[in-house]
UniProtKB/TrEMBL annotation:
Main localization, broad class: nucleus
Protein's cellular compartments: Chromosome, Centromere; Nucleus
Positions with biased composition (Polar residues): 65-82
UniProtKB keywords: Centromere, Chromosome, Nucleus
Family stated for the protein in its record: Belongs to the CENP-O/MCM21 family.
The keyword Nucleus is assigned to this record: yes
GO-annotated cellular components: Mis6-Sim4 complex; nucleus
Protein name: Centromere protein Cenp-O
PANTHER family cross-referenced by the UniProt entry: CENTROMERE PROTEIN O, INNER KINETOCHORE SUBUNIT MAL2
Organism: Metarhizium humberi
Length: 303
């Protein structure tokens, strides 16, 4: 009867070792790519590669034409990638014209497209698109035709505020004047705010080690889960191993405005006050959660 746990222990240990090796290899490959990109992005490296790729150097005895051409090609790709990144950073919103292939499309199928660039954790995300057309006869007023904006962003409300429909009477009124520039700026700000709030949840999980815990054993009072609790990403739900739950509430910019903890007997005012004070940032909340976990572990060991 004692042989079954013994036989399963090496298997579990082998799985953990294999998982750690896989994580280490992925981390090293990522670091290698970053270092290579950094070296190739250097101006001095580019000059050295161009000089080594010259015909005079290529004709020298012992020179490797294949390695030199590969390095030159990789440098060219890196320069193109840098140029693209610079453009996407300097022009976060771009406009373009497309044609609706539908033969029954309004305004002869003319569509104005808006492309919104978003960056998170040093990487560009998939752009968001908003398509506008002019469905009102005899009017230049725009209307949102199609979009890929996430539901958490109040696109309909922004369009109603900054791109109102023309008056039915057909007369010009200041209440129906459209401000496309303000609509674009406000919409991009809301998209950035949304991703900032998503980043707060990800940073909290990373700070508390929840993203890499896996199936490992945890302390009885450890925080075991933290995730977005609503579609607008303004609330983060927290769960402890002792069945306590919490809710962290943020404003539009991702600043913490409220934190509550609930236990088996209702709201835990002591825990809520110990973790969150007025004007605390998400870093302060994460630090206090870590301190409470360390204190509970020490108390358990002493007991």
């Amino acid at each position: 009867m004692d042989s079954e746990p013994t036989s399963s222990e090496p298997s579990q240990l082998d799985k953990e070792i294999a998982s750690l090796r896989k994580q280490a290899a992925a981390s090293l490959r990522k670091a290698l790519r970053i270092q290579c990109s950094t070296i190739l992005s250097s101006a001095s490296t580019s000059r050295l590669i161009r000089s080594s790729s010259s015909p005079a150097v290529a004709r020298r005895p012992g020179s490797s034409e294949t390695a030199s051409s590969k390095l030159s090609s990789r440098s060219t790709q890196q320069q193109a990638h840098m140029q693209q990144c610079i453009y996407r950073i300097s022009a976060p919103v771009t406009s373009f014209k497309v044609r609706d292939p539908d033969p029954n499309a309004v305004d002869d199928g003319h569509v104005l497209g808006l492309r919104f660039e978003i960056m998170s954790r040093g990487q560009f995300l998939r752009p968001y698109y908003v398509m506008l057309n002019r469905p009102y006869p005899g009017s230049k007023h725009l209307r949102v035709h199609r979009h890929t904006v996430p539901p958490a962003v109040p696109l309909a409300g922004l369009a109603a505020r900054h791109l109102p429909q023309p008056s039915r009477a057909g007369g010009s009124s200041s209440s129906t004047d459209q401000d496309l520039d303000k609509f674009v700026r406000t919409l991009r700000r809301e998209i950035v705010r949304y991703h900032n709030r998503l980043g707060v949840s990800a940073d909290l999980r990373r700070r508390l080690g929840l993203h890499e815990r896996g199936g490992r054993a945890v302390a009885p009072n450890a925080l075991v889960e933290a995730g977005i609790a609503d579609i607008e990403a303004k609330q983060i739900s927290l769960t402890w191993a002792n069945d306590k739950t919490g809710r962290l509430i943020m404003d539009d910019d991702g600043n913490v405005v409220k934190f509550v903890v609930f236990g088996r007997d209702g709201r835990d005012w002591e825990a809520s006050g110990a973790v969150f004070d007025k004007n605390d940032s998400i870093e302060d909340v994460a630090r206090k959660l870590e301190e409470r976990l360390e204190e509970s572990i020490l108390e358990e060991q002493e007991g």
